[in-house]
Amino acid sequence: MPYTPSHTNRTGVYLRMLELSFTPFPQLTTPRLLLRQQTVADKHDLFYLRSHPGIMHFIPRPLHQNLDDTLQFIEMLNTGIANRELIHWVITLAQQPERVIGCIGFVRMKKEHYRSEVGYLLHDGYRGQGIMQEALQAVLHYGFNTMGLHSVEAVIDPANTASAAVLEKGGFTREGYFREDFFYNGKFYDTAFYSLLAREHRP
Q1: Whole-angstrom distance, CA of residue 65 vs CA of residue 115
Q2: What start-end ranges are recorded for coiled-coil regions in this protein (predicted)?
Q3: Tens-digit pLDDT profile for residues 158-194
Q4: Domains defined along the chain, listed by start
Q5: Of 186, 189, 154, whose CA–CA distance to 170 is shortest?
């Protein structure tokens, strides 16, 4: 992975940070899954995911109210990818690549630290099948081996035990617990921070 001079430190010596390119978009495959870029044609599936109170229960973002919300969401993601600010895949079954059953991506890049946050979401009808673990491993492999990340973090609601299990099975370590540090929709929430270093990743 190439690097590019970005800014200087106090001594005037150039520091380097990740130089990323997602063109052409990297599709990822696993034995069961195809991870690809979202398109306008995915609007109905993405609307279901982002408007479902159960699926979005632990994600502090407003529920989509209509397809216009979802179309704006797709545009925001694809603009972020074009600007190399994030990368986001929709999760599909390899035999049904037109149907979106989840999402996963590096949603916050910290290029100067070779670090990014991973986030994910799965259709309620596909839980308990190891699908998110399979998708996560594909994304981590791409992040560490192609993007050149040194570490990946995940930030979750500690009450989300299913997400914690995915991360821990994937090798992540819980390295922080912050009490009522996040305010959303009139309520304070606790936050758990997990991380995984490149040298710790065992696909």
Answers
A1: 33
A2: none
A3: 999 999 999 999 999 999 999 999 999 999 999 999 9
A4: 27-154 (3.40.630.30)
A5: 154
